[in-house]
Every structure is written in structure tokens, then in C-alpha cells.
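Researcher: We're teaching a course module on how sequence relates to structure. For the next exercise, students receive a sequence and then see the predicted structure as C-alpha cells, so they can try to spot secondary structure elements on their own. Here is the exercise chain.
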Amino acid sequence: MKLGYVTAFDASDIKQWSGTGYYIGQSLKNQSIPLEYIGPLKDRLTLSLVRKSKRHYYELFHKKYLRDPEPLILKDYAKQVQKKLSNIKADIIFSATTNPIAYLECEQPIIYWADATFAGIQNFYPHYSNLCDETIKNWHLMETLAIQKSKLAIYSSEWAAKTAIEHYNAEPSKVKVVPFGANIESSKTLEEIKYSIEYRPTDRCKLLFLGVDWFRKGGDVAFKVAKSLNASGLSTELTVVGCQPIIDEPLPEFVKPLGFISKYKKEGKEKISQLISESHFIILPSMADCSPIVMCEANSLGVPCITTKVGGIPTIIKDNKNGKLFDLNVNISEYCNYITNLFANYSEYKKLALSAFNEYEFRLNWNVSGRTVKNLLMECLDY
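Model: And here is the predicted structure for the students to work with:
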């Protein structure tokens, strides 16, 4: 079984799409599946046409035009893929997104593994809000065509799978859910994780916020939680990585902003792993998220996550197994009570932290995900 791995971007480059396309490929290669990378694809549509469309919709309607689902681009992607397929022998066409396969005509079965549908992210993420009618129409068409052409539509969460069935009438039998793994090469043993958990202070709570978008990822909520915990008597630190805190007061001493740290550099990767390992919780009270892989990475180091019931997060985080889910706009006191109770019964915190590592070991790593997808691929070919 050989795959033609189609992506518009360069999936062999770990810096693309936060490394997810790269790790998808690696997860399948590690299952002894030969891959032929078909990508990056060239966007040969003239920039002047795109600029004209963007200017037209903004100036006349104050709406955004996005080029991602533009049929002219997607049809050209399909031509590029077809040309490359003529030079390789592939049993399955596999993609990480729907863009390059929506208009693809080929004899091989098409399968993709994505983290969302447009129906799920429209007006959910700021980037996909206030869109012009043309972009909306084209994006829904792209999703519909990709689902119709595919033999299997694999999604990283139940939320994304549900939107495929409910909004695009995908046949439930061909929609599967396989979570993404942690984009980190963690080889920590159980004993090492136990040591890390024991090393964390019992008289001080260390929260870690990891995200590049302060408000979408809930940085304002994380700050209020840390501030309230300190006011209630539990000494708390909030370390912020990826962005600068935006608050309406001078930055308190308990907030430690470290800015952006690149995990694509050895020292950056080691620093992030150290920060996660030393923390009691990752706190990401997100307003919108598809499959935040940082939560899998936290679990890989025995760190539970405090987050929200939005998007694909409930597929990753299970209450009192590897963290805690809260409703949006819940009172800050609920976050604080949860954390305070665990510190008052610290043996329960340690059980939760070990359980988080267990969730990573058995469910949230690329080996497990790759093996699951391999079995689905073999079923498609009746192996």
C-alpha cells in the first residue's frame, strides 16, 4: 500500500501548519506505509486578480475575500496533482486538507484527515468571520465536493465530524474520528513523569498559557483566574508564552511574559518542554479552537489542561482524566474552586497528572493515531 500524500503546502517541512502536516506524514511512515509527497503546489493564479477581488469586496461591502477556496486555484491544484500522479504509482490519494482534492479526478480512492470543516469554523475564528458571499459559497462548495469524492473523511474531533454530517450530508459510515497526536518527540518514561510531578511545588500554583492569540485562546480569563487565586491566598504564577499579555492594568509580578519561543530550534523546544513539565496546568480557556495539539503535548509531560467546551477540545480533554472543561463565560470562581480543591487535596492532583500522561500514552500520540488510520486505509483496500 503506497500513498500519494497531497498537500498544498510542503508537508515535509516541520515549520508548516505548526508541524501537523509533517507529523501526519511521519505517523504513517512509522507504520511502514510508503509515502510519495505531492506538494507544495504552486498557486499560479495572478496576484493582481486576488488583490482586485480583495479590494473590491472590502471597499464596496467591507467584507473579506479569502483565496483559499477560489475555484480557479483549486482546479489548478487538481491539474498539478494529476500531472504528478502520472509519474508515480499510488494506491490511495491521501490529504491533510480538502483544498487540493476538491476538484481532483483520479482512479485511486481519496481519503483525507482534517481538523475542521468550513461550517465549523465560519464565524467561529475571527479570520473566518465577516466573509464575502463569494468566499462563503466557494468554501461550502469545496467542502461538499471533497466529501463527495472521498471514500473516507477522517476528522481529528467529534465536533468536526458532526459538522461534516450535519452541514454537508456526509454519509456517517464514511466519517471517522482519529485525534491528532502531540507534535513533540517525547520519550519520557513513567518514572520520569512521576519525578516531574513530585518536583512541582505544593505551596504555589504554576499556570502556563501557551498561545499566539491572547484573546481567542482565553488569555484574559487565564489572567483573571491567576489574579483571583492569589487574592484568595493560593500563591499563583502565570507564565505566558507565544504572545504579550493584554490587560487594563500594570503587569503584576505574578505574570511572567516570555514572548514567542520557537519550538523549531533545539533550545526553544527544550525550553518549552521544561516550562510545561514544571507547570501544574496548561490553562487555555479558548473562545475558539479546532484541535489544539499543545494539550496533547502537555499530557505527554504529565500536565493536565484547564480549558473550555468549544470546538474539538472535548475530544482531547476528558473531565478529571487529563484536565477539566468549563463552559464559556462561566464565573471565574469555578476555575478557582477547581484548582484550589486540587491543591487542598494534593494527592488528587498527582493522580490527575498521572492520568493525563496515561491519556497521552494510550490515546493522544501519533503512533496510536497512525496505527488507527493505517487500519482504516487497509479496510478501504480490503487488505
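Model: If you want an answer key for the exercise: The first helix runs from residue 20 to 29. Residues 190-362 form a domain with the Rossmann fold fold (CATH 3.40.50.2000).
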